[in-house]
Amino acid sequence: MNPNSGHAETRHSNLADPHQDAANARLAADIKAWGRALGFQQVGIADTDLTEAEGHLHAWLEQGRHGAMTYMARHGTMRSRPAQLLPGTRSVISVRLDYLPQSQQGIATCLEDPARAFISRYALGRDYHKVLRNRLRRLAERIRTAIGPFGHRVCVDSAPVMEKPLAAKAGLGWIGKHTNLLHPRAGSWFFLGELYTDLALPPDRPIANHCGRCTACIAICPTRAIVAPYELDARRCIAYLTIEHPGPIPEAFRRAIGNRVYGCDDCQLVCPWNRFARLSVEDDFQARYGLDQATLIDLFSWDEPTFLARTQGSAIRRIGHLRWLRNLSIALGNAPASPGITSALAARAHHPDELIREHVGWALREQASRRG
Hints:
Strand content: 5-15%
Oligomer: single chain
Largest sheet: 4 strands, antiparallel
Distance between the termini: 63 Å
Number of helices: 17
Radius of gyration: 22 Å
């Protein structure tokens, strides 16, 4: 990344100039218009003071609630101090891109069918990292065309960035009791991305928290991962267990996982603010290979080449074939007893990997217990 210090000095030295302030305000307005023209539903600007969020992050890490996500602690204060990630950072442009691919009623129908595999709706289509990154690069190029070279870095959930606190400071929503970002007219079915810049842009105002007394997300969580309002213990979260957790999934959580084989959307489905969420207009976020309708048995039959082929360009690929089979084994164990499921599991009972053998064995025992 090129901070372009010469340009930065010119802009920053004029911060007290009312004409420069007006120019910065016009540029901020233009950036928001350019972002909307690129398809972002919302664009906001935040300053870089994350002192409060840094305190929450340190407390969370000290309690070990990040589980095996060691990368959350690896970079020290870089995550909460943007100028450590990109020297010279003064403003962060935060963007929102809606991804809801189907009606929430349709999502609930899939979740309620134990024979079908439930995949978190953000992962049904193309990998969001690629979609947002490409679009943010185009936004950066549009800014460069208007003002010349400037220091910047595109961030999409792939660098030590506190995207939700930054988005909240930029006025894109508030952090709800489930720790997702919520907007009063858009709910929470959206992705976030950031453009770190050395531009002295006027920050937007945060919006008020509207969770009120509602605790629906806390009550619905299958594994009680939301241990208190605004506090998530990732070690209990199904999204963490099925995606981030590398080893055996603790038996205490297996039945609660149900048919969720990649992530969990329960807290979003029950949130009353999501009645305002709109379906995505992005073709990239529509389901591929029928993953929104797929059965557990069908997905469990995929060998590794099939898995790699059908998750090409998808966020699902990052968990690998073994975790895919591990998660599906649990879901098959939780399904109503059937000869087809028993046969599918038995075919992998002697899998060369111990992780799969253990989970398949558990699933076979669960199936046998239901046959009585």
